[in-house]
Amino acid sequence: MAYRDENDALRARIEQLERENAELRRERAHLRAPLRTTTTGERLLGAPLVLIEEREIDGALPASAHEEVLETLRAAFGAIGDGQSVGHTLTWRLGPPARQRIVEVIVTSREGRTRVRVLERLGTLAGGLFGGIVGGAGAGGAAVIAPLLALVDPVLALVSVPLWIGAVHAFVRAGYESTANARARELDGLTNEIERLVRHRVAQDVPKVRVDAKHDDDEHVTGATRAAERRAT
User: Are strands 89-94 and 82-86 parallel, antiparallel or unpaired?
Assistant: First the structure.
């Protein structure tokens, strides 16, 4: 029996190390690789307008653990947000006016598996940067620079307008891309933290089932042994 317990402990440790290695590989990939842009609009912006992180975990997260997930989210963003727990589904949202960031988290347990989905919409951030800075500093700056250059050379004035707006756009694009990548790394770390919490709570429930099953097996074996002894006597 002790040999079986040692094997189970060793197997559990190996699985834990494999999960930690997979998590480290994901983190390195996020640090090295820029966000993928799939549409023309996203390429102009430099990063996607929506960031999504998803995990799927073996085992069902008990509804009693939903409050722990909410506490993790509130601590991460420093805001209460709007959380709802219905059956085996937990939803949490953060947005204006409490915070400028728009974040949605859904944790669903179904058929012995738990799915974690974390999403952030960056439309407000992109609108403020490109609409405010490119529209204001770009067009406004060009309106000031062009007349001054026209006094020197009209052709230079015409060329300066698109060059100025392009330079402002490139500056804002780099800023948006940097911010989006930082947000993506933050969401990845948060999703990993929720995944660890889910695995921990699922693991807490598994031994209880195994212990009960083992206890039933022992009782069955003991009963069968006693019955055989009575027949022998």
Answer: antiparallel
